[in-house]
Batch of 3 targets.
Target 1
Amino acid sequence: MTSAPTAAVGVERQYVDHLEQGRFLIQHCSACRRHVFHPREICPHCGAEGLDWVAPAGRATVYSFTTVARKPEAGGDYNVSLVDLEEGVRLMSSVVGTPPDRVRIGMAVQAVIGERDGAPAVLFEEAKR
């Protein structure tokens, strides 16, 4: 994978570093036992410091989505999805490997590490049943 564009320092940089190493990690607060995403220095639920990095199961559900229309020569249409991980956090990503017009709210998906704009990114594929 190629290097990500210059990311912020601190936990944002740690998150990108993990992705560059092929690992998708989110944070977990040992004080209130809730998961956290997007990376933060302090738990947004209880204010505790020192969040731990953990590997989510990667199982998720499409909460919402939209299709971005592009000309075929610009790469064609793609989707932007809000995805709920079973750990209770929501993130913005894309469902790949499925035509944009087949993505549906409630669709079961699985996290994969791929590439977006030359940088490692968490993407989702339709879950195998």
Target 2
Amino acid sequence: MSALRRNPLMPRLIVLQVMVASAILCNTLFLLGQQAAPLLVDDGLAGDELVIVDQLVSRGAPWPPAQVRAGRDALASIAGVRAASAASGVPMRQTLTLAFELKSADGTMLATTGYVGERLLETFGLRLTRGRDFLDTEYRDIRMADDMHTPIIITEALARALLGDADPVGATLRSSDDKGSYRVVGVVAHLMRYQLSELDDGKAEYSIIIPGILDGMPIASYVLRTAPGNREALRAQVSKVLDQHFSGRLVAGIAPVVADYEHLRDDGLRTRRAAVWLLSTVNAVVATITLIGIASLSGYWIQQRTRQIGIRRALGATRGQILRHFLAENLLLVGVGLALGLLLALGINQWLMQHYELARLPLPYLPAAAVLLLALGQLAVAGPARRAAGLPPASAARSV
């Protein structure tokens, strides 16, 4: 502390650098985590086997359920199709978005993405972990204008969020207005939402499956499952079937989308991957600049005290004592910078919340950034401190 008071400029510069670096790293690590988390989520699908058929827009009246099922049967008849389902809401496509607000018995309410269709577990390739699939008698035509009372299948993530550790099978969830009710009959391991703007903060798997076909929908969509190596040939066959079955019934100028799921996922998450690379680069640059800055400032400051080091060595101080002195000194400065920087990080996060609707910075990011910067600080000062500790007492005393 005596040495720090006698020459305060260098310590203050180190504290300032650590303060700014910690404020930046806390928020950029948080943003990186938000962007990267959905990329690491298991979407639950047999992705390399799926072909998505979407954007079949009716030119006249909305598609009746019978017409939708007829289209499904026509697509299912293509050679190589293992399973086919009509669906309102298909993976990685937001042509038609179905959102349901579910409320548990204790009042917990969450917004979820709905997949409505028939035989979706088989076609999607989902893994059922609890309960059962829908019964044949549970599939029906659904009108969205009516109050909905239906069995549903939910994901494990949604079950934990709504019901905690309780067994979700058999639980009754209600709509936000208490007019509709949903009875959980099964739980799947994973199923990612197709609302790509709703994948942050652990919400990527808040999905439900509802049995049936929506009545009065202007858009029809299908999911086909085939062998991985057959997808390209299947896409060509799908186009022919669409031309035959829906000829003259589609809106001119809006071409149906026929694509394999992996390409849709790649395109849908492209922006997030770019953000991950950008934020990773920012974090790496900030960490590198901090490391170089602390090493340079500490090295210069230690060099200015070569005489004092020599005197201490001449009085009997060991190399280890000199090394520990500078490591402890640096630890103190980095600690002060961190204390100020973490407060600054929270302030920046509050400002971002108010002006850019950023989520609140989770507290675990603060110790994570602190540990990273403490390690960088000690690594940065280790080299200059070892060189100082290695100076012979006589040569150190003559170097002023």
Target 3
Amino acid sequence: MSVLVTGGAGYIGSHVVRLLRQRGDTVVVVDDLSSGVAANVGDAPLVQLDLSVSDAVDSLRTVIADHGVDAVIHIAAKKQVGESAARPAWYYTQNVGGTAHLMLAMEAAGVRKLMFSSSAATYGNPDVPPGSLMRENGPSSPISPYGETKLVCEWMMRDAARAWGLRGVGLRYFNVAGAGWPELGDPTRFNLIPIALGQLTEGKQPVIFGSDYPTQDGTCIRDYIHVLDLADAHLAALDYLDRDDRPYDIFNVGTGTGSSVSEVLEQIGRSTGYDVRPTIGDRRPGDPATLVADVSRIADALGWRAHHDLAAMVDSAWQAWEPTHGAPAVRPS
């Protein structure tokens, strides 16, 4: 199979590209390199392109034709919640506009298989009892422009299925962490684990935003998924598109088990050897107490399940982080 991976030079995309190539698929990557790293794709062909620009459709059609593309994995998107609140129109242009251009190119080229990178941000701040699992058929009420763009793209995928026969499937990511290979670690500081690692290696202590939630230890609970498990789910979803019997087009991707912020920081201490003593700050607006995936649908329909636990995620994240960012000679105490 020849697969086009948009965003394939990024943190998640590079893991997907590597797994595809390991199983023998041909891969071409399209990435604007705003956050991706060209070296991450190895010797796979890389086309630098912003999907939101006006001539992106023609450029994508050329890429599809030149590489005989059979299917598309669409990961390219802007993904920072705070930034989306500050620049909503730009986020819609990038995420919704870019996806529309990709679908137009696919329709024109006769490519009908699309695996779309969605997000648990589509659920928003769910009004559900504490401890409830998020189900794909539950309410979707995103509270950020970022989450809204992902939900709109899910709608677009369904509309294209009705209009011209697109075979689409979306994966709603939960909290992605870890590294499948040290050179493919998350280089950003937008998620809890890399934020905490960055603070600790700078001699600081992490901050917990709120310790009075209705959870066992008072801190928020999230579902953390190892990036290598997530990448493997992309391959399972891509293969699902070859089936005539496809009862669902949206799947949660998580472990089905939640970890609190305090538990994650405790594991970071065990993995790194740092004396982690977080400070407590105020709650952040919009943070739900618990957000954990119901993963029964993806297990039943795709036969997929996660294999890595929290310790493996943090261990691998630290192994990827330390050589690049270094660590002080004396660990904070």
